[in-house]
Amino acid sequence: MDVRNYKFWFVVGSQTLYGQEVLDTVDARGREMADKMTKSGNLPWPLEYKGTVKSNDEILSIVTEANTSPECAGLVVWMHTFSPSKMWINGLVNLQKPYCHFATQYNRTIPNEEIDMDFMNLNQAAHGDREHGFIAARLRNRRKIIAGYWEDEDVQIRLGNWMRSAVGACFSKQVKVMRFGDNMREVAVTEGDKVEAQIKFGWQVNTWPVGELVEYINKVTAQEVDELIKEYAELYVLNTDDIESVRYQAKCEIAIKKMLERENCVAFTNTFEDLHGMEQLPGLATQRLLAQGYGYGAEGDWKTSALTAIMKAMATGLEGGTGFMEDYTYDLTKGNELSLGAHMLEVCPTLAGHKPRIEVHPLGIGGKNPPARLVFEGKPGKAIVATLIDLGGRFRLICQDIECVKPIYQMPNLPVARVMWKPLPDLLTGVEAWILAGGAHHTVLSYALNAEHMEDLAEIWGIEFVHISKDTDIKSLKNELFLKDLAWKLQV
Ligand code: MN
Prior knowledge:
Blueprint: E1 7-13, H1 20-39, E2 47-53, H2 56-68, E3 72-79, H3 89-94, E4 99-103, H4 117-122, H5 125-138, E5 144-147, H6 153-172, E6 176-180, H7 194-201, E7 204-208, H8 210-219, H9 222-235, E8 237-238, H10 243-262, E9 267-269, H11 284-291, E10 295-297, H12 302-314, E11 322-331, E12 338-342, E13 357-360, E14 372-375, E15 381-390, E16 395-405, E17 418-423, H13 427-437, E18 442-446, H14 451-461, E19 464-468, H15 474-491
Parallel strand pairs: 1-2, 1-3, 3-4, 4-5, 6-7, 6-9, 8-13, 9-10, 16-19
Antiparallel strand pairs: 11-12, 11-18, 12-17, 13-14, 15-16, 15-18, 16-17
Helix pairs in contact: 6-12, 6-14, 8-10, 9-10, 10-11, 13-15
Bound molecules: manganese (II) ion.
Manganese (II) ion is lined by residues 298-299, 326, 343, 442.
């Protein structure tokens, strides 16, 4: 399913006590609000009015439909009037889609002269939303609560932000990861429980032989490669005479993509330790596939690969890129400490601050031919890095706020794409916090998403979330991790 086809359903709660006239007004307003919010341009996906519900059966029926509708990415509910919440129990215990309680009201202000008991009966969201909030709390339902006036841009933007997390969680259920080879030998953090990941996130993580990819590579025609090389020439600066190496990467791109499409996979992994029959480690090929929205994790890192695909889906339509990243080395100049992120090859060109160059350089490890790759500098700006780790029995999502800068050195002999940043609150505290929380060396870096997107995604998934921000101090983080460890043990 194309991410752009998702929709959200707006469900308004009420009851039959107020008579048909009130219900007709509620119905008309629910429709008007959903239409206006959709047309505002502030919601990344449409909010479709799905009806005013007044009974256990109506609520259960909408929930059942939402659960099985592939296009419904979540419910946004609001109580225009009072809606006794025992009638919501059977629906809410069965709800499998992301759920947002929108605490708003139709009118912005109280009409001083007109307000009477009829007005009070029709407009009692303050009252109805509390009754609804209680039942979700009683059921321990995972939810987002957004309070604010529905016509306000900032409120619509918050709703739109939550939609991204909800789409991430729905998209997650269809994620299939194609693994070429296993994990890099002896590495711990790229391991994890694939069965638990499928139970929690819906991911199907499976392996295909590298030999099959080699057969696909060998079948790519010269004409297919010619066409792709034309596209490369338009998008990138060709900074090499070694066209044969570039053509080999084009073959890899075409072959990997054909296999991904054949199996409906949206993400893949490989490892330089298992390239049997291949001439180069895919560099340019992987960067190109990342730019097309595929997830990727190096060294067999299927968790980061799936997370990259999901975060790219969440960022649909936003400015700023999202891609696979790795902390490589620090600059510890006192007072201006920075981290240099890169990878052997596979940095997504959506992170680039300028037109990338295609270059061919030897790779120190893997024992294959020098691979073609895109070389560029990342752009400056606010961003996040996110990582998903398996702590044994549960997953933890860690997100750190970072500020990317234009790299302070030219680094003319560094043959890979690079991004330079300052982690918050500062490099040293940020590094201590990241290490304390167990964050991986692989991350997903995104200029488009923020920590709230990731926190809401963790909420929908029902997993632990740790945010390292400008407010982080090590003492409180230690305490937070200790308490979360106890709490999450009880939940498993
Ligand atoms: Mn790596």
